Amino acid sequence: MAEKILVVDDEKEIADLVALYLENETYQVFKYYTAEEALACFDREKIDLAVLDIMLPGMSGLEICRRIREKYTFPVIMLTAKGEELDKITGLSLGADDYITKPFRPLELVARVKAQLRRYKRYNSGYEANEDILEHSGLVLNIRTHECTLDEKPLSLTPTEFSILQILCREKGKVVSAEELFHEIWKDEYFSKSNNTITVHIRHLREKMNDSFESPRYIKTVWGYGYKIEG
Structure pTM? Predict the structure, then answer.
């Protein structure tokens, strides 16, 4: 069954072009030009991934992302205008998994979509069944069900947040650089030269885990190197 992708952009030409390229890859695309139409779609369809333009009339793509994360964990890719660095960081903080800057090559967006869906399916299909459960000091990650608990309380994580935490737990005691995290998560497919993306996701993880930056119980920053979870 074809994966269902939601595309929201008030620039009709861009939305139509993105939909065309995704449909050529056999995805089922639900295309809208306003946030209100997109939100109504969630009540009717089981969406697998959303591509959201940040600048929309009325409700912004950031608000759509926030509402998505109240109920769903599927990947979200934000479309941003050149120079909207603050919006990119805000989007990642609200739970977006990736962003791409306009103007962009449609094939680049298709590659990002494939990478996000591939990772999301891996974490929801029992991939690496011999490592189904990762545990550390009250933190438990179930790789098969893509569930995470901290001190027996559930943590709602985006696919990217879950990926980062899984890598750090798997490499417990070792320092993992931001570049290594990017490489493993995005598989070399157009990963950013900037570390901002990983930095924001780490910060968001700490907030959800109530983990102190100064005296971390879990994620420790090793200046000049990367991040690690103490063994």
Answer: 0.61
Query: How far apart are alpha carbons 209 and 86 in whole angstroms?
Result: 24
Strands 4-8 and 28-32: parallel
The predicted-structure confidence for 21-67, as pLDDT tens digits, reads as follows 999 999 999 999 999 999 999 889 999 999 999 999 889 999 999 99
User: Which of 21, 25, 34, 20 has its CA nearest to residue 3?
Assistant: 25
Element containing residue 201 per DSSP (H, E)? helix 196-209
CA angle (104, 109, 110) in 5-degree steps: 140
98-102, strands of its sheet edge to edge? 28-32, 4-8, 49-53, 76-81, 98-102
3-state secondary structure of 19: helix
67 burial via Cβ count (<10 Å: 0-12, 13-18, 19+)? middle
As beta bridge partners, residue 101 has: 80
Report CA dihedral (22, 125, 181, 18) to the nearest 10 degrees.
10
Quick one: DSSP state of residue 176? B
